[in-house]
């Protein structure tokens, strides 16, 4: 992975994703309490919600890969890459 992308992920994306994950957990727990779900129902709901998130995440990832490949195959990308080399974070 490009070192800049890794740095951006560690300093921006990962903390944001962790906050979102924690908020989703809290909201799901509140929903379980609100509807007075028993432990088995809670597990079922959580499994269904996490499965839905996994499917959505996989779909978003595959779309990103497709657009990334389209972008990388463009001759302009190689020029941009050369121009940005001095700014890479090591």
Could you characterize what this model shows?
The model has no long low-confidence stretch (mean pLDDT 87). The chain has one domain (3-87). The N and C termini lie close together (12 Å). It has helices spanning 3-34, 39-72, 75-84. The protein is built from three helices and no strands. 84% of the residues lie in helices and 0% in strands. The protein has 90 residues and is an all-alpha fold.
Beta-strand percent range: under 5%
Summed up, the domain count is 1
Structural category is mainly alpha
Order of helices and strands: HHH
Return Rg in Å: 20 Å
Number of strands: 0
pLDDT average, as an integer? Answer: 87
User: What is the general shape?
Assistant: elongated
List keywords for this structure.
single chain; 90 residues; 84% helix
């Amino acid at each position: 992975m490009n070192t800049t992308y890794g740095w951006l992920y560690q300093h921006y994306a990962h903390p944001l994703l962790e906050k979102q994950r924690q908020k989703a957990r809290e909201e799901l727990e509140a929903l379980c309490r609100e509807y007075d779900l028993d432990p088995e129902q809670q597990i079922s709901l959580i499994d269904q919600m996490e499965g839905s998130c996994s499917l959505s995440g996989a779909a978003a990832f595959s779309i990103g890969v497709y657009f990334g490949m389209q972008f990388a195959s463009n001759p302009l990308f190689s020029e941009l890459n050369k121009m940005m080399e001095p700014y890479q974070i090591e």
